[in-house]
Amino acid sequence: MREASFVKQNKEKWIGFENALDNNVKINPDDLASYYIQLTNDLSYAQTYYPGSKTLLYLNSLASQAHQKIYITKKESKNKIISFWRDEFPLFFYQYHKTLLYTFLIFMAAVTIGAVSTLNDDSFIRLILGDAYVNMTLENIENGEPMAVYKSGSSIGTFLGITINNIRVAIMAFACGAIFSVGTIYVLFSNGIMLGAFITFFYNQGILEKTSTVWLHGTIEISVIVIAGCAGLVMGNSFLFPKTYSRRVAFMKGAKDGLKIVVSTIPLFIVAGFIEGFITRYGEQIHWTLAYSIILLSLFIIVYYYIIYPIKLNKASKSQAVSLPTESPKSLLT
């Protein structure tokens, strides 16, 4: 690209950023980071193709100014962990709501496939869950304890084992996103098909209502697998669709954002493991009102924290933060 075309294409963006920095305009931290990354990308491009040019000198000066604003005036919160969960993460996650929707639709498509396949083929459930599990469950049903599998082992052992396994599945759903998002889609599909087949298996046995015991912990467990899948798609899609970034920079940003999403799920997996280890084993003895209260509360927490609360914070943030101006003040660029 000729230097004149490069300047014409990006001039308005640079001038807007320069004006915001010169006038100490308040910028949303995520937006500031995004503008800074774009600026450093442009600087790297200019260093490669226009060495010694006026454009390179201008971008180098602007990048230095932006660096000082980001790192010199940065104030660390005394309650960083609290502010992360309360403000930083929900506001950050808002931008990925559309990705979360796509992830949910992929997962539900897999659940539907698993359910329909099990309804129309009795052997499908054995293919998905294995003969050993199906035979054990059928035996438990005959003994009048279809959920006996959740009563085995100690409470603490179950809690630790399930929590570790759930975190492993979440990390796998995220890490597989590196394979151009295909790996994450595979993990979502495999788990979705298993869930659909499992529920339909109990429906075929005429004891669908017994699955409420599973949903005591499964509501959080399944929801967070979808969220971890969202993290994997964020990373994979960043490479496939880099937008204005180079693929390397876009992938690094996507990986960082995806990891942040995965980290947010760890406390929820711990809660799900605790419920499965200490409450699910008594699911058939718990009154249905308490059981459904736990299920609905779990669902509300997930929906509120990952969907409703980020929307509320985003609206509040927009009312406080000032957008970058689009006017073109006097600049070094002519």
From TrEMBL:
InterPro entries per the UniProt record, alphabetical: SpoIIM-like (IPR002798)
Put simply, this protein is called: Stage II sporulation protein M
User: This protein's superkingdom?
Assistant: Bacteria
Q: Does the keyword Hydrolase apply?
A: no
Q: Which UniProt keywords apply?
A: Membrane, Transmembrane, Transmembrane helix
Asked if the record carries the keyword Transmembrane helix, the reply is yes
Which residue ranges does UniProt annotate as crossing the membrane? 100-119, 169-202, 214-240, 261-280, 286-308
Q: Name one Pfam family in it.
A: SpoIIM
